[in-house]
Amino acid sequence: MSLGLIATILEKMKKQVKPALKDFVKKEINILQSEMKTRFGGVEDRFDGIDKRFDIIDKKFDNIDKKFDNIDKKFNYIDKKFDNIDKKFNYIDKKFDIFDKRFDFIDNKFEEMETIAEKRYNKVMEQLVDIAGQFQKFDEERLVLAHRQSDHSDRIERLEKAVFKTS
Q1: Which H or E run contains 166?
Q2: Domain residue spans in the chain?
Q3: pLDDT tens digit string along 102-124?
Q4: How many H-runs (helices) and E-runs (strands) does the chain carry?
Q5: For residues 104 and 112, what is the distance between their CA atoms, to the nearest angstrom?
Q6: Residues sharing a CB contact under 8 Å with residue 37, sequence separation 6 or more, in sequence order
Q7: Of the given ranges (7-11, 34-38, 47-51), which has the lowest mean pLDDT?
Q8: Sign for the pseudo-dihedral over CA of 39, 42, 44, 47
Q9: Is the pTM of this model over 0.70?
């Protein structure tokens, strides 16, 4: 047999085998699909169920995210309130600092006044001691003079008696 003849025979066989092979492959695929459905019980249905469950889980996660967002909003609100409280405390601290400075100023003035008053007191006490000393000296002089006067009055009376002889 010649090569040309073999080639033509093969071509004829190919044309006959191609449609038969296609039918055979289609039948085999259908058989495999039916076996898979019986073995796995409808995989597509199972995936649909899984998809539905994932959708439910996604919705629950969305709800959880919303709740966390609400919680974040509430914490932000609380943070703002704490910031306001901090501002008020800072304001109060500044006012106390001002009062502290004023009280320190007043305290310094009182200390100055106390030292001035103490100096005046010491000066007045020195003057009182001097006056008391002068009074004491005056009293002593008065006593001496009073004693002399009494001596003189006694002498005068004696002289009057002697001169005038009256009594």
Answers
A1: none
A2: 1-41, 42-164
A3: 999 999 999 999 999 999 999 99
A4: 2, 0
A5: 12
A6: 43
A7: 7-11
A8: negative
A9: no
3-state helix, strand, coil in the chain (%, to 5): 95, 0, 5
Task: Considering only the C-alpha atoms of the chain, give the largest distance between any 2 of them, rounded to a whole number of Å.
Answer: 216
Do 160 and 166 form a contact (C-beta atoms < 8 A)? yes
SS3 of residue 41 by DSSP: coil
- Amino acid sitting at position 41: G
How big is the chain, counted in residues?
A: 167
d(CA 49, CA 40): 14
AA letter at 122: N
Query: In the structure encoding, which two tokens stand for residue 167, read together?
Result: 């009594």
Nearest to 147 by CA among 159, 136, 139: 139
Contact 86, 80 (CB under 8 A): no
CB 145 within 8 A of CB 139: no
- What is the Cβ-side half-sphere exposure of residue 110, based on CA atoms within 13 angstroms? 6
